[in-house]
Amino acid sequence: MTRSRSRKLLSRILWLDPDAGNAPESAPIAADSAVDPVPDIPTYRDRSLQPTPPREFRESSLPASTRVRSRLLPNEPPVVRTPDLYTEHFGLKVRPFALTPDPEFLYWPPSHQRAYTMLEYGVRAHSPITLITGEVGAGKTTLLLHLVRSLGSELRVGLVSNPHGSRAELLRWVLHALEQPAEIEESYVDLFSRFQNFLLSEYAAGRSVVLIFDEAQNLSAEALEELRMFININSGKDEVLQLVLIGQPELRDLVSRPEMRQFAQRVAASYHLGAMDLKTLRGYIPHRLRVAGCERRIFTAPAITMIYEQTKGVPRLVNQLCDLAMVYAFTRGRQLVTPAILQQVLDDGVFFPASAPRQTSETT
């Protein structure tokens, strides 16, 4: 399928050109005349780009799609998965604004540098509890994944995502994260005994254990108190267990309650990650494009300002709106994303603006 046919097909799907294939292409959208230069902000570390798809996928009998057979339903007909439509159009190697956390695209404005410094400090300094909070989509999980990559063999890491449940269920989450058995018929005493013996065996082997709870705002006050009791396994000057809690602002509010003062006193490092300001966003968007393989400007300065107004600087929302804008620009054959294209995205109702998040960053 040629790029021209792809644009017309996607235009019909998006209702941008209901008479695609018959009616002439709409008049060009004028690019914004006043464009501020974007500073060349370096990345924190040079990383290689993601590899291109394997040859057998790129040379499929369907040149504009990939056939993928379900593992769960081997007798079902192949599923046709459409590739990224606009990457070739813009000269990109990968999509620059995917919504899934990817440390390869990590951008390091001052707020993220401070958040990561506190996160790494908490782990390296053997802090009993490290607390990192931030708005939805602020980049907390991406920082967490970058941290996990950097940790050495002297640490045993257990990652618990979206924890919830009773005391015994919480302990089962922990044991599973540490690749330890936790049968449903076992009592809490049995589970805790296994957990304690595991911590002591790791300590004897010269390793400390780091338990990371992502989406920790889902933990109740009772669950947090249970985690504090886990810390009491530590004895003497050596910490055999550390807790890292990553969550939304509600987690910080919960820990700040008067009845949680015993837990709060064990928090040795914490940081609240706010949304990006406009200056940071002007560096963030071209940074992700560079990592994806494009050095030229795609978003005009007025378009970036409009993106900030609609997303309030939340990275995940920025990615979503930028991705949609590039799809719309592709369907029109444009090489620049302008406010007019963004307005079409908004008018079509495919993007849902967010309410204003907290902008402040706090460190303790």
From TrEMBL:
Record region (Disordered): 18-77
SUPFAM superfamilies for the chain: P-loop containing nucleoside triphosphate hydrolases
CDD domains the UniProt entry points to: AAA
Transmembrane segments: none
Coiled-coil stretches: none
Stored Pfam families: AAA_22 (PF13401)
AAA+ ATPase domain location: 126-268
Protein name (database record): AAA family ATPase
Species of provenance: Rhodobacter calidifons
